[in-house]
Design brief:
Helix content is about 60%, strand content about 0%. The protein contains 16 helices and two strands.
């Protein structure tokens, strides 16, 4: 789109607004000045429909029933465990963890629909983390790599993980292997988006948002998480404060653990329900208009990786 033509810009903006609810219109106005990062430090101006996805996802970052959700679901999962019990296995711990995650991707053995949503988020970020770590290991041993000709690093890393997870991997046909790889990479890509959101909004975002975010995240453009981060950090600062309350919860769930009664009681006492309600109200209201959109900063510091929070949680397994 040629933005030198003000009339065309205005018409496109109004057309995009007509396709979304009025509560998102002000956000679309604010984000119309957003410059998406690209390759070689170049930026681009996204189309308004892409910006609409970002605005709608950002304003779904806190579920409106968050306080009730804590009492009706979260406390029970923290006390009894979110994950169904698994049978003992003779495979190594790392392979077993991968197998558990792959088996739990669709959470089909669990009948708690609310829990399934959260489990899918968690297993996807774990897959993303394991894949990143496998790539690091391959790079560290690059001199001794015996990769098949034409096989990229990402595929080689995925195959190593899948070989550990599926005992029958070598018996799969090439088409079956490719189908499994495709599913793995699709789920990992969603996991990457969750990890990037956690990097800029805090890991608690995995707990605080409703199912609408799961729908939106699959439609993210490449710069989607950056766009959400810049929108939230500039317009809804209370949201990040709310997410901090749930960092310890994410750690517990990522390592498939549970809280002791005393730890759970302490966490519930420290939880400021007024802050939660303030964050929810802030998202309901019109976003505040910043003088300019400042670039977002990772909550863990500039040097943090998107999967740092996963490493921290799993290191205490």
């Amino acid at each position: 789109m040629n933005r030198s033509d003000d009339w065309q810009i205005t018409a496109a903006l109004q057309a995009a607004k007509a396709r979304i609810e009025p509560k998102y219109h002000r956000g679309l106005d604010i984000m119309s000045g957003y410059q998406a990062p690209g390759d070689d430090n170049e930026t681009s101006t996204p189309g308004f429909d892409k910006l609409s996805v970002i605005v709608q996802a950002a304003q779904a970052a806190l579920r409106e029933d968050l306080v009730a959700f804590i009492d009706q679901h979260l406390l029970g999962w923290l006390k009894s465990g979110l994950w169904p019990p698994t049978s003992p296995s003779n495979v190594g711990d790392h392979a077993l963890s991968i197998q558990r995650s792959l088996d739990m991707i669709d959470a089909e053995v669990y009948e708690d629909e609310m829990a399934k949503i959260l489990m899918r988020r968690l297993v996807r970020v774990r897959l993303c983390y394991w894949h990143d770590e496998q790539i690091k290991a391959l790079r560290a041993n690059s001199s001794s790599r015996q990769a098949d000709q034409g096989v990229g690093l990402e595929t080689e890393a995925a195959d190593m993980l899948l070989r550990n997870a599926y005992v029958e991997w070598e018996q799969f046909s090439e088409q079956t292997k490719q189908n499994v790889r495709d599913r793995f990479h699709a789920r990992k890509r969603v996991g990457r988006r969750w990890c990037e959101l956690a990097q800029f909004l805090g890991p608690g975002i995995l707990i605080t948002c409703g199912a609408n975010m799961d729908t939106q995240i699959r439609n993210f453009p490449p710069y989607g998480t950056h766009g959400i981060a810049i929108y939230v950090q500039n317009c809804f600062p209370s949201l990040i404060h709310v997410c901090r309350y749930f960092e310890s919860v994410v750690e517990v769930f990522l390592r498939r653990g549970r809280m002791t009664d005393s730890a759970l009681n302490d966490w519930r006492i420290e939880l400021d329900e007024e802050s939660l309600r303030k964050g929810i109200e802030e998202l309901r209201d019109e976003p505040r208009s910043p003088e300019m959109l400042m670039n977002p900063r990772p909550v863990g510091g500039e040097s943090s990786e998107s999967t740092t929070f996963v490493r921290k949680a799993l290191s205490s397994e």
